[in-house]
Amino acid sequence: MKRMLIATLLVAAGSAQAMTFTDYATVLKSEPRYQTVKDDNCEQVNEPVAAPAPSGGLEGMVTAENGGALLGGLVGGVLGHQVGGGKGKTAATIVGAIGGAMAGQQIARNTQGARPTTASRTVCHPSQREELTGYEVTYEYHGQRNTVTLPSDPGRRLKMTVNAQPAASAPAANTTNY
């Protein structure tokens, strides 16, 4: 029992002597590693738009301009009819209708708003590129070869952090318990 206690104390005392230091390993090979990354590269494109062609019938006739002219002509005719008497009344009605039609057509043009001349659409150009993910480094340290992946190329030497501590000694094979 006393020997077991002494061995445990010696191991504990030995671990208190642990040491950390920096050393260098020789780099044997350093190769870049890449990953394929896909990009969509989408953009908005504005293209000219043609005005729709009339398809026949009254479609080309029934417009805001024509409606404005009709309404303006009616209002102008009614207002012109209120002026004058006899043949002058007829002339005032005709002049009021023509003036009202012209004014109504112009008002309709101004308030109709501009028709869009372009249309927007999304165009994608898929592509791919190679992106560097790190370096696969093979190094030798005290006769042993290892391979690790690092974020950057270490050059010809690889900085190593070494933790050293005494190994615990194994108890003697022929111990007797008292």
TrEMBL record:
Organism whose genome encodes this protein: Pseudogulbenkiania ferrooxidans 2002
GO cellular component terms attached to this protein's record: outer membrane
Main localization of the protein described in the UniProt heading: membrane
Keyword Signal: yes
Xref: Pfam families: Rick_17kDa_Anti
Protein name: 17 kDa surface antigen
Source species, domain of life: Bacteria
Signal peptide: 1-18
InterPro entries according to UniProt: Bact_OM_lipoprot/Surf_antigen, Gly_zipper_2TM_dom
All residue ranges annotated as the Glycine zipper 2TM domain in the record: 67-107
Keyword Membrane in annotation: yes
Keywords: Membrane, Signal
Subcellular location: Membrane
